[in-house]
Design brief:
By secondary structure, the protein is mainly α. The protein is built from five helices and two strands; from the N terminus they run H-H-E-H-H-H-E. A two-stranded antiparallel ribbon has the order 1-2. Helix 1 crosses helix 3 and helix 3 packs antiparallel against helix 4. The two termini are 25 Å apart.
């Protein structure tokens, strides 16, 4: 079932969302100081391509640096990427088949706003500290 949902997701919005993350990542690679944002954008972009079967967990080692980075990220790219998820979720929720995809889109809004200090792991391999 996850594979079917992932294929439908990819066709009906996942590809465009991932391209948005990849574009944000490329822009972040322009300056040396924003390279961690670019890495986070590419990581979330891969998650946006194939989200079913994965989950987001907090990194236990995240500190004040990720908090400051998240504030900068919200201003630079987070608002626009989260808005893309909300608009896509509304469009997907129009049909009954699209409701699980819309819920997955809404599940991705928090990580699109605050990506630093998070880890994307397979659902079957959740860390033991959860």
């Amino acid at each position: 079932m996850r594979i079917l949902l992932n294929i439908i997701w990819l066709v009906f919005g996942g590809l465009w969302l991932a391209l948005g993350y990849f574009l944000a990542g490329l822009i972040c690679f322009v300056l040396i100081i924003t390279i961690p944002f670019g890495i986070a954008a590419f990581r979330i972009g891969m998650y946006a391509l194939w989200p079913f079967g994965k989950t987001v967990v907090d990194k236990p080692t995240a500190g004040a640096g990720s908090l400051i980075g998240n504030v900068i990220w919200i201003v630079v790219a987070g608002i626009w990427l989260a808005l893309g998820h909300v608009v896509t979720a509304i469009a997907m929720a129009i049909t009954i088949i699209g409701i699980p995809l819309a819920l997955a889109n809404l599940k991705m809004v928090p990580i699109s706003l605050l990506p630093l200090g998070k880890d994307i792991v397979p659902v079957d391999n959740r860390p033991s500290y959860m």
